[in-house]
From TrEMBL:
SUPFAM superfamilies: Nucleotide-diphospho-sugar transferases. The keyword Phosphoprotein does not apply. GO terms for cellular component: plasma membrane. The chain crosses the membrane at residues 236-261, 273-293. This is Glycosyltransferase. Residues 5-175 form the Glycosyltransferase 2-like domain. Its main location: membrane. Keywords: Glycosyltransferase, Membrane, Transferase, Transmembrane, Transmembrane helix. It is found in: Membrane.
Amino acid sequence: MPVLSIVVPCYNEEEVLPETTKRLIDVLEELIADELIHESSVILYVDDGSRDRTWELIEQFNRESRFITGLKLARNAGHQNALLSGLMKAKRNADIAVSIDADLQDDLAAIRAMVEKFHEGYEVVYGVRESRTTDTFFKRFTAEGFYKLMRGLGANIVFNHADFRLMSKRALQNLGRFEESNLFLRGIVPMIGFRSTNVYYARAERFAGESKYPLKKMLAFAFDGITSLSVTPIRFVTMLGFIMFVLSILAGIWALIAKIAGSTVTGWSSLMVSLWLIGGVQIMCLGLIGEYVGKIYKETKRRPKYILDIDLDPLGDAKYVGG
Ligand code: UDP
Ligand code: MG
């Protein structure tokens, strides 16, 4: 029977953790009773540099229950990196990992469905939201636009799937081979391959507390996702530049002919308009190129994606630093 590790990144989640813990333990106990997973399966909390009592709670649950273990990151590394740190731990001491948010927005019943799919031979199982009725209109609208855009740009991401998924040990080991420092898991996981399938569920409202993804972070996340998976935007810029170059040559020829024919230039306003237009497009293009250059700069530094502070269940391995 496979050892399951449920990886839960937590950032200031003291309000939801007690309830999450209770419900996740129920899930584990039922799965163990039905002989779907091994009894040494765990819930692995990753404290992503929380400033509230999140870590104290994790330590307390760890003392109270053999199902609870935890990693404490030295500082806030962001949702994706926190999740990755947990997955990289699970890669070493579990056979399957299910990643889920701490806020109980994802249906815990889907975990069983995912494990069943694993037993049927699937190595990656995506949790897919059936409906987004609990999200605001704005979030629904922007999320849909985002998925469509990603698809259009050729990134193979699963529609309406966040980071609620099951991965086999093999898939995790291969995930560990993607060394880019800007990791967008939703885009990377489908690239791994292996047999995969979807499990559908209804997404609930956050159980308590506030979203840790305010608009600014959400936009940054979306933009990061696009630029880390696709070079189409930069190609689009090159094409735009080329088209404008051709147009300006035609305009130049026209201006020359007009001059020879004796008709004088009168349009000051049209001159100004095109000047601003070209200036604007140029700045935008430079910014876009800069975005990719910045990405390259970040990647070349090869900085660690997260720093591990405490591991409640360290693997007796001197080299182990969490990676
Ligand atoms: N999270 C994290 N580090 C961060 C921000 C968020 O580990 O810097 C965790 C958070 O605790 C939660 C999950 O990532 O378990 C998703 O965050 P949230 O529910 O706030 O995002 P939303 O569902 O609103 O997109
Ligand atoms: Mg949430």
